[in-house]
């Protein structure tokens, strides 16, 4: 998370998403979309259709410099 915060100024479009078990692609895409969508942009998309979520994420990232971190760390051991 520290690296992500350190790079925030370099990427106007960014998202940090934590993946949970069981993996849910719809939730991951919705989380990314919520963080990258342009303020005031309407997001008329069916949240249950993966293809629409992917298309909307692509639409909001196209032509932009972006950083997306997908954190899948579920447990740590010393």
UniProtKB/TrEMBL annotation:
One of its GO terms (molecular function) is ADP binding. Gene3D superfamilies: P-loop containing nucleotide triphosphate hydrolases. Pfam families: NB-ARC. It comes from the Eukaryota. SUPFAM superfamilies: P-loop containing nucleoside triphosphate hydrolases. InterPro entries: NB-ARC, P-loop_NTPase. Residues 7-76 form the NB-ARC domain. This is NB-ARC domain-containing protein.
